[in-house]
């Protein structure tokens, strides 16, 4: 509630504060793979990318899903606080968490007021230097403890074929985050014939190595899987990777070796920042 003094009539008006609402696809109480520690994960609705291997095509549509306020999400999340430990907290995922940046920002601001650790899962596509987005993103980073950044493919042509969008702005976002000392955990989904090329992995490795300020706390290879195919059939969307099998254990090891994943260990002692 906000109290406004009307100096001419000497009365006190009480106005109800507008609560920020957004669209949520689903939530998960005990996420163990969505950032450091055990985390409550809210999957926000909406994504403009169309990754061929996306296992959640039901999160793509924008402006649908369950309408929730930031308070509702945080109240629900706090029921699991006892399980979080020193690293855990909440993760906003998707879909693409930056599609609803006003909502994401409001949740993280209020989470930090409650001393909850915040993790942003993003593939970076909405990033732009243009306003009003950039100022909101800048502010969001102040309330974000760590970001899970999905790098789909370093080669711009292959990236466009795989996801339907360019990757230039995604790398601009990563560079900005490095220069701004924003912690991140990089993930790359390994798909045979689409993202598993030694020369691209080498380039990605070099790219990650030059990200400034030791902000890369972990680098992870996620082997492609086919668990989402059923959803495509149910939604009558053509599945473009029909017939492609998950990568072999050797190819996963090869990618981990090229990306030097074992060198990125800082996540082990990582702690959320105190604001
Ligand atoms: S960015 Fe994520 S949610 Fe969006 S299409 Fe790709 S995998 Fe799916």
Automatic annotation (TrEMBL):
SUPFAM superfamilies: Radical SAM enzymes
Domain Radical SAM core: 33-272
InterPro entries membership: Aldolase_TIM (IPR013785), Organic_radical-activating (IPR034457), Organic_radical_activase (IPR012839), PFL1_activating (IPR012838), Radical_activat_CS (IPR001989), rSAM (IPR007197), rSAM_sf (IPR058240)
GO MF, any single term: metal ion binding
Annotated compartments: Cytoplasm
Substrates-to-products reaction catalysed: glycyl-[formate C-acetyltransferase] + reduced [flavodoxin] + S-adenosyl-L-methionine = glycin-2-yl radical-[formate C-acetyltransferase] + semiquinone [flavodoxin] + 5'-deoxyadenosine + L-methionine + H(+)
Record note on cofactor: Binds 1 [4Fe-4S] cluster. The cluster is coordinated with 3 cysteines and an exchangeable S-adenosyl-L-methionine.
Enzyme class: oxidoreductase
E.C. code: 1.97.1.4
Stored CDD domains: Radical_SAM
Cofactors that this protein relies on: [4Fe-4S] cluster
Keywords: 4Fe-4S, Cytoplasm, Iron, Iron-sulfur, Metal-binding, Oxidoreductase, Pyruvate, S-adenosyl-L-methionine
One of the record's GO cellular component terms: cytoplasm
Function: Activation of pyruvate formate-lyase under anaerobic conditions by generation of an organic free radical, using S-adenosylmethionine and reduced flavodoxin as cosubstrates to produce 5'-deoxy-adenosine.
Annotated NCBIfam families: PFLA
Family: Belongs to the organic radical-activating enzymes family.
Annotated PANTHER family: PYRUVATE FORMATE-LYASE 1-ACTIVATING ENZYME, PYRUVATE FORMATE-LYASE-ACTIVATING ENZYME
Protein's UniProt name: Pyruvate formate-lyase-activating enzyme
Organism: Xylocopilactobacillus apicola
């Amino acid at each position: 509630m906000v109290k406004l003094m009307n100096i001419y009539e000497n009365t006190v008006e009480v106005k109800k504060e507008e609560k920020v609402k957004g669209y949520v696809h689903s939530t998960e109480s005990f996420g163990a793979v969505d950032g450091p520690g055990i985390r409550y994960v809210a999957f926000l609705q909406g994504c403009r990318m169309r990754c061929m291997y996306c296992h959640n095509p039901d999160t793509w549509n924008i402006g649908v899903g369950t309408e929730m306020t930031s308070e509702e999400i945080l109240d629900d999340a706090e029921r699991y606080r006892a399980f979080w430990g020193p690293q855990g907290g909440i993760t906003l995922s998707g879909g693409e968490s930056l599609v609803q940046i006003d909502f994401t920002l409001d949740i993280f601001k209020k989470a930090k007021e409650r001393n909850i650790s915040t993790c942003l899962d993003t593939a970076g596509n909405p990033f732009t230097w243009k306003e009003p987005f950039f100022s909101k993103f800048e502010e969001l980073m102040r309330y974000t403890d760590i970001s899970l950044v999905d790098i789909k493919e370093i080669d711009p042509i292959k990236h466009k074929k795989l996801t339907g969008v360019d990757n230039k702005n995604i790398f601009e976002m990563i560079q900005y985050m490095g220069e701004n000392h924003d912690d991140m955990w990089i993930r790359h989904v390994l798909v045979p014939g689409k993202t598993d090329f030694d020369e691209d992995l080498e380039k990605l490795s070099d790219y990650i190595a030059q990200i400034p300020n030791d902000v890369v706390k972990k680098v992870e290879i996620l082997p492609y899987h086919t668990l989402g195919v059923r959803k495509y059939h149910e939604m009558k969307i053509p599945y473009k990777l029909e017939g492609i099998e998950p990568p072999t254990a050797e190819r996963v090891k090869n990618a981990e070796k090229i990306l030097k994943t074992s060198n990125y260990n800082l996540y082990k002692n990582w702690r959320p920042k105190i604001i």
